[in-house]
Amino acid sequence: NEDDDGEAEVVVKTRPKTQRPPLYKVLLLNDDYTPMEFVVHVLERFFGMNHAQAFEIMLTVHKKGLAVVGVFSHEIAETKVTQVMDFARQHQHPLQCTMERE
Ligand code: TYC
């Protein structure tokens, strides 16, 4: 950059990095004992899915062993996991729900 005094000058532009909060995948795991209808109900109740979506995801877990059921902030993901685990335990089903950083 050349201005009126004839001296070269370097203009440095700063590009502020936008900080984004880390996201967490909430995973549902398959097992041999939890009834399919219970899993569908969990997905409707805690993840706001309609019946068709919930049924589809339940079948994916059943066939593949696990599926991501949502992506949330750390606090929300923890709440979902706790809600699902408490609800499964109340109904004496071995359903497992976990979270992992995306
Ligand atoms: N595999 C279970 C059954 O055959 C159904 C099931 C689906 C269980 C999804 C857990 O996360 C799960 N009754």
UniProtKB/TrEMBL annotation:
Coiled coil: none annotated. Residues 20-98 form the Adaptor protein ClpS core domain. It holds the Pfam family ClpS. InterPro entries: ClpS, ClpS_core, Ribosomal_bL12_C/ClpS-like. GO terms for biological process: proteolysis. The keyword Acyltransferase does not apply. Keywords: Hydrolase, Protease. GO terms for molecular function: peptidase activity. It comes from the Bacteria. The keyword Hydrolase applies. HAMAP family: ClpS. Belongs to the ClpS family. Involved in the modulation of the specificity of the ClpAP-mediated ATP-dependent protein degradation. Binds to the N-terminal domain of the chaperone ClpA. NCBIfam families: PRK00033.1-2, PRK00033.1-5. This is ATP-dependent Clp protease adapter protein ClpS. It comes from Lacimonas salitolerans. The gene is clpS.
